[in-house]
Each structure stands twice: as C-alpha cells, then as structure tokens.
Amino acid sequence: MLESIKEFASTFFVTGDPLIYGADVSIALTSLAILFVLTYYKKWGWLWREWLTTVDHKKIGIMYLIASLLMLFRGGVDALLMRAQLALPGVEFLHAEHYNEIFTTHGTIMIFFMAMPMMFALFNIVVPLQIGARDVAYPFLNAVSFWLFMMGAMLFNISFVIGGSPNAGWLSYPPLSEMSHNPGPGQNFYIWGIQISGIGSLATGINFLVTILKMRAPGMKLMKMPLFSWSVLSSSIMIIFAFPILTVTLALLFIDRYFGAHFFTMTQGGNPMMYVNLIWMWGHPEVYILVIPAFGVFSEIVATFSKKRIFGYKSMVFSMMIISVMSFFTWVHHFFTMGAGADVNAFFAVSTMAIGIPTGVKIFNWLFTMFRGRIQMKTPMLWTIAFVPCFVIGGATGVMLAVAPADYQYHNSYFLIAHFHQVIIGGVVFGYLAGIYYWWPKMFGFSLNEKLGKWAFWFWNIGFYVCFMPQYALGFMGMTRRVYTYGWDLGWAPLNIISSIGALLMGIGFIFQVWQISYSIKHGERDKTGDPWNARTLEWSIPSPAPLYNFAIVPEVKGQDAWWIMKEEMKNGEEPKKAELEPIHMPKNSGIPFIMSVFWFIAGFGFTFTWTWMGVVGLIGVGLCLFARSFQYDTDYYIPVDEVKRTEASLGRVV
Amino acid sequence: MKQRGLFNRFTFFCLAVISTILLAGCDAQYFVLDPKGPVAETQYRLIILSVILCTIVIIPVLAILIYIVWRYRDKPDNKAPYMPDWDDSKVLEIVWWGIPIVIIGILGYFTVRDTYALAKPPVSDAKPITIQVTSLDWKWLFQYPDQNIATVNYVEIPTGVPINFQLTSDAPMNSFWIPQLGGQEYTMPGMAMQLWLQADQPGEYYGTGANFSGRDFAHMRFQVVAKPQSEFNEWVDQVKQTAPSMSKADYDKLAEPGQSEEMTFSSFPADLFDEVVNKNGGQYMEHHQMGDDSKDTESDSDGMDHEMMDHEHMNHDMSGQKAE
C-alpha cells in the first residue's frame, strides 16, 4: 500500500530538480500566508461577497489585471531562466527537457494567460465607462468568462509542480504533441488549460460585441464612438471567428490523445499539417486580436496628451476594420517553408505585406495627432511614443518576413524570434502598459508615481533593444530557435550574452513597476476630480473610482470626444441639463460562475490525468450549475434614488 | 528632456560595446548574408531589397517623430502653432495611404517573381543529382540514390551542380537548412518534399535542423562539404570501396532516438526512402508515387520540363487527403 502511494507520488509530483523544490516550497508558503491572512482578519466573507461572486465589470477587470500581472511575472521568470541558459555556450543550468518545458510554458503563458487577460482587463474596465453604460450586456456571462480564464490558467500553471509541464512548443505541433512522442499529462494540461480559458475568451468576445452594439449612451452613433471602443469591437469580431477554430483544433488533438483517433498522427491517415494550418488560422488573427486594442489605447492616449482631436478618425476606424478582415487571410506565412508551392506562397506573401498598409497608415495618423498639438510627457504618453519606433521597426521586419523566398532564410531562426517579440512587446505590451497607466486613476482613484514609472520605462525600453536587436543578428548567423545549448564555434556567444543582459534589464523594469504600484498605493496622488489627465471621453466625466452603477444619469452624447465637448460647454457657461434621477437597474451577484469554473477545473484535471471518473464528475457539476442558473429568476434589483443621491454626495458630486 | 540626453548617451555606449564585440569576434559569420550558391543569392538580393524599401519608410517616420515630439512639446514658451481641432486632411491621408501601397507593390512584384523562380531548379549545364534527406530523432540521414551510398550527419555535394534534395522525416517534423546555399524547407513524415540548392564554390558549410523536434534537437547539425565534380567522384569511389554497407537492421538502429556520430555507408537497402515515406502515411496519399519522382527529375535534367514541383506534390497530397 505504502509502496503504491510512493510510486504514485513520484510520478504525480514533479521531482528531481532543486528549482522545482524551491518553487514547491514558495507556493506552499504563499498559499499558507494567504489562508492565514484571510482567516486572521476574518476576510473570507468579504472575499466571497465582494470579489468571488461579483458581476461588476470594474471588479472583474481588476481581477483580470491582477492575474495578468502575476502571469507576466511567471512568464518573465521563464524568460530569464532561458536567457540564463543561453547566456554563454555550453551552460549546464537547465538540461534539454527542462529547457523545452520552459520555452513552451513561456510562450503559452505570455499569450494566453498574460496578454489575453491584460487585454480583457482593459476591455472590462474601460468599455462600459467609455460608452456610457452601467455594465456589460451579460454581466453574469462576464463573471463566467473570468473564472473560466482563471481556472484554465491555474490548471496550466500547476503542471509546473504536478504531473510535468508540456514541452512541445507553445503551439504544440503534432506528432510531437501526440501520444506517440508525448505520453505524459503535460500535453493534456496544455490542451485543457487553454480549452477552459478559451471558452471564456469566446464568451467575452460575444459579450463586448453586444455591449458595444446595444448599450451605447443615447447620441453615441458608431462613428462618434471613441477609438478604443472601436478597437474592442474589431477585436471582439475577430475573437468570435477565430476562437472556435482553436477550440476545435485542440479538441481534435485531445481526441487523438484520449480516444486514440488519428486526426493528426503520422500513421493511419492522420495529417499533422492539417493541425499546423488550423492552429495558425486561429493564431494569426490572435496576434491582431491582441494588438488592435493596443492601437485603441494609443489612439486615446495620443489625443489626450497632445490636447488635440485624433487625426483621421475615419481612416483609423477603416484601417482597424480592414485589418480584422485581412488577418484571416495571412496564416500560411507562418509556414511558407512547408512548401505549399509557389501559388499559395505568392498569395499569402502579398496578403501579409498588404496588411502592413493599414497598419502603417495608423502610425501616420498618430504622428499627425501630435502635430500642432501640445505634447505632455506623462508615463502613458512615454510608452506611446516609445511604441512608435519599436513597432515601425518590428513592422518592417514583419514585411521582410513576408517576402516568401527570403522567409526560407529567416524562418525558425532568431530573426523571427526578434521580430515577433518586437511587435508583441513593442505593440501589445507597451500598449497595455500605457493603458494601465492611463486608466489606473479611474480604476483605483489614485495615480501611479511618475518618477518610478519613468525608471521602469527606461529599464524596459533600453532592456528591450539590448535584448532583441542582437537576436536579429543571431538569426543571420544561423542560430535557430528552441536550441537549449550551442557551441563556441559559430561566434554566437557575444550577442547572446548581450541579449541576456537586456532581458535582465527588462526584469529590473518590472521590479520598478511593482515598486511603483506598492509605493503609490500608500503615497500616490488621490484623484478627486475624476479627470486627472484633462481627457476627452466619457469615463473621465464620473468620479474615480467609478461608483457601482457608473453613471447616476446616463449622459447625452453630442459628438466625438463627448466629455471634451461637455467641458467646453461648461467653460462657455452653459448649464448642463438637469435630469431627474431614477432607480438604477443592476444585476445581482452570483456564486455560480465561480462554482461552475471550479467544476471545469476538476473536469480538466481529471481528463489531464485520464481519470475519466473525475472528468465526468466535473462535467456533471458543470451541468448542474447550468441547470441551477436556468431556474434562477431573481437575478436583478434596483438601486433606489436615495441611495444614488447619497453615493454621489459622498463622492462630492451634486445631482 | 534631460532623460532623453541620458538615453542617447546610453544607447551610444551600448552601440559602441556591441560593435567592439562584433569586430573582436572574427569567428562570427553571418551565413545568411554570405551566399555561396544561386538560391541563397536570390534570397540575399530580396533581403537587401526589402531592407532598402523598409528603410525608405523607417527613416522619415523616425525623423518626423523626433521632430514632432520636440517641436510640439508642452512648454509655456513654445511658439509652435497649436490647432486642437485640426483633425483631417484629404491630401495627407492620400499621401500615407499611397506611399505604403507603392512600396508594397514593388516588393510584392519581386517577391512573387522570385517565389516562382525558386520553385524551379537553378539554371545550370550540369545534370542535377538527387540526394534523399531523412530527419531522424536526432540525426540526419543522406541517401544518394544514383551513387547508392549514404551518409549520416554530413553530406558531400559537387559544386556547380543543382542538387535535388528530397526531404522526409521518420520522426517529428524538422526543417532542413543550409543558410549559405539557400533557405530551409520542412522535412515531414509521410511526405517527400523537394528543395533545389546549389553550391558555386567549394567549401564547408553549416547545416542545421531548424524546426524543434524534441530532446536533442539542439544537436541536429550537419556539415555540408562542397567540392568539384572530380573530387566528388573520387570521394564516392572511395566510399564505395571502404565504407560498410547499411542493412535494414542498421537503419532501424539508426532511427532509434539518440544522437549519432558522422557515418558513411557504401550502400543502403533499395527503396528505403520510399518505404519510410509510405510507412509514415505516404501510402494514404493517392498520387504519391516515388517512382514518378525520379523519372521527373531525369526529365528536369534536359531543362525542358519542370512540372514536378513541390506544390504539385502538395496539391496531390491534399486531394488525396480529401478522398479519405
């Protein structure tokens, strides 16, 4: 009996590496500390009522943000471990299998569990406020989305200490990810972690599409909508078309692994190339799903901090929408070297270059928004300005990669690695960070310290170029991605050590940001006006942080930059129209999203270890939650006028 | 603004360090930028063209950015015009929709032209030779069907002769890359892909697996030795006389996961390559007949018929798949 338990534990828990034991200890200690604090301060009820059951988009956004920052830390540590291993030839810091796991989890976490939730954080925090709505269209579904994401992320992350991490790359090409080459649970963790959070992502896409189409304040025609909301609309449409492809692809891979089917196996008529096509039919739109909202963020920031209207609004809208369509017709450029032939490669090379055109147009529009403006160098604007050169160079190397015959030389080399990190860090991460700095006062009611923010900014930026510029050169020197070691013979050492130093600098930048946040929680400047940046859109017309119901009175929108227009009118002495307060209709909190997601976690964990009974128990739990919800009739309530008045008065507003 | 100056100095310092290291490390070789054959040459020219076209955009954009950020900074004594409501200009919009369209048009033209050009074998008077490449866990097997010899982890080729590399895998997908001779192509189980390369100068070239394929992927490097036809023939004769032959059992042993030394064989089991392709799913591909391949390759040699290109392969493969 004891023997069998021992044997089980030795395969169930990841063993053998001091790094892992260190992680085990720190995870256990952190969990104990959290449990202790919650119990000691009697915060369990508070946690349940205020956070776990909330359907408030602002709180859900904050939870997304916290989760994504934690994942940024995890993915960043992965990156630093890799750069430590590659700093010099023949380093024996990580052995091959461990390195393979780390680059797999680095990529997966950064895309699925860092970038996606950080994007959803901005969606949630900003969109309803920006369009003058009191919540999203489906608040309950919004909570479901968040908890599905959270449970998927947790499931993926425990693979680090239980069962073993996936090691077939962040897109897990078969047959390497099939049972034939990867029999352990690691690959199942990958499939289920992404599947569970992917359902949440799809639901979020639907939710925000409907929210934007149906819940805009009166007067806000689509062509008067702020550009960030436009970018969310564009991104949501792409999510709705792209994520089902991902779900189906991973489901087929799981059927291969679990039921012994042959969709993507080498033998029995399977075709691994089909997987590569399918995964990139999702994968390419995915990068635009991520970057378009970043474009939206820049559009807001650049107008606000140039004190000027955005230049070429129609052009901006048109280019975003055309990108969202074209992004579905470029996927083959991720594998020109599969040799699909000259016709196919020529088509996808040209379509890929063509998508650079609307992107380039946006750059010019941002530049000319600043032209004849008054540029204030606050942190959000710093990130925006830094984005321009970074993304222009990254975009240019993207166009170089689109040249199909030349891609035969860049493909799978460090040139490619440098390119996509430049557009994803320079575009997506810079954009989201800029957005977080910009809307931080709106979320929490205080600003982040500018001085520490500037330190973080310079470390990130200098670190970025030091890290990734050498990698372009390494690509020309023939260094391929995903090698865990290399020799002295090819002269790769100097550039690699420089690159590792750059990674370290970015790590220091992140530490500055953590410092900045913790410092500002105590000492940050409180935002009493609700409009600390003298901004232009509706979210700045209400107090910071926004009250539960967002708008005591739903505003009337008279044009683009609705809040700016209102401010101009007030300056001209026009009295805002008095409107009568009415009771406000709000959704009730619910524990079902959380509980249902826990059951998804149980199901995912069961299927990961091929414990069918456990998977079935989890799925039954999910079914019961859905059943229970469909018989819940008491899902909403009204906030009485008195309470709205009291709340507004306490926030210093007269209604 | 003070920080900006600091940044410039720091960047300058970094650049100085980088260039010193680059100059010091004389063993650093930029393979992709040092082509030794017509395929790599074509790709190199495209790389240079795309760099130039991109630079035409990047430099003005960066200059405009720096100018605007400096000129329109928010300082009380800044006399630059401030037009908070100016947000539209048809002329400007046409200019910056137009410029990228023109540039992409030019680049697109050359891209498409060369994409088609590289699907054909390099123009040469010499009769092409065929080398069958199999990526294994974690080593490379090269078979010379015309010479009936085989090597592992190194490949010798005659200079000035188009080489018809036929690529497959008896392990997870990899990618076959000799940067100085030309770009890579995937080696895929159940497929025989075609990659034309040619070395114009004798020399030793770096070859590597480029697509991650598991544990020892980092060690999947191979040496490419290009030598004049006469020396190549001598080498073949020598291999035939001195090297051991490879049996089916030898192959099976070789295919087991693990690394391998360089090896040489004076013969290999007939149809081994076809068997490997078929075993891994090739038998499901309707029109996939390796016999035709060699025939077509022969007809290629007279420079008249280049029908048998890899895209044809794929089209057949896909239709075969649908028929399943």
UniProtKB/TrEMBL annotation, chain A:
Localization of this protein: Cell membrane
Pfam families tied to this protein: COX1
Transmembrane feature ranges: 20-41, 62-82, 102-127, 139-162, 189-215, 227-255, 317-336, 348-368, 380-404, 416-440, 452-473, 493-515
SUPFAM superfamilies given in the database record: Cytochrome c oxidase subunit I-like (SSF81442)
Required cofactor(s): Cu cation; ferriheme a
Gene Ontology terms: cellular component: plasma membrane
Entry membrane topology: Multi-pass membrane protein
Limits of the Cytochrome oxidase subunit I profile domain: 40-558
Major place of residence: membrane
GO biological process: aerobic respiration; electron transport coupled proton transport; respiratory electron transport chain
Pathway(s): Energy metabolism; oxidative phosphorylation
NAD recorded as keyword: no
GO molecular function, one term: cytochrome-c oxidase activity
Superkingdom: Bacteria
Keyword Phosphoprotein: no
PANTHER family membership: CYTOCHROME BO(3) UBIQUINOL OXIDASE SUBUNIT 1, CYTOCHROME C OXIDASE SUBUNIT 1
Official protein name in the record: Quinol oxidase polypeptide I
Species lineage: Bacteria, Bacillati, Bacillota, Bacilli, Bacillales
UniProtKB/TrEMBL annotation, chain B:
Free-text remark on how the cofactor is bound: Binds a copper A center.
Enzyme class: oxidoreductase
Principal place of residence: membrane
Cofactor: Cu cation
Gene Ontology BP term (one): ATP synthesis coupled electron transport
EC number: 1.10.3.-
Gene3D superfamilies, per database record: 1.10.287.90, Cupredoxins - blue copper proteins
Region ranges (Disordered): 284-324
Signal peptide: none
Bilayer-crossing regions: 44-70, 91-112
Residue stretches making up the Cytochrome oxidase subunit II transmembrane region profile domain: 24-122
Gene Ontology cellular component annotations, sorted alphabetically: plasma membrane
MF annotations from Gene Ontology: copper ion binding; cytochrome bo3 ubiquinol oxidase activity; cytochrome-c oxidase activity; oxidoreductase activity, acting on diphenols and related substances as donors, oxygen as acceptor
Catalytic activity, as annotated: 4 Fe(II)-[cytochrome c] + O2 + 8 H(+)(in) = 4 Fe(III)-[cytochrome c] + 2 H2O + 4 H(+)(out); 2 a quinol + O2 = 2 a quinone + 2 H2O
Residues in coiled coil: none
Cytochrome oxidase subunit II copper A binding domain segment(s): 126-238
Location in the cell: Cell membrane
Similarity-based family: Belongs to the cytochrome c oxidase subunit 2 family.
Protein's job: Subunits I and II form the functional core of the enzyme complex. Electrons originating in cytochrome c are transferred via heme a and Cu(A) to the binuclear center formed by heme a3 and Cu(B).
Protein name, UniProt field: Quinol oxidase subunit 2
Organism listed in the record: Brevibacillus fulvus
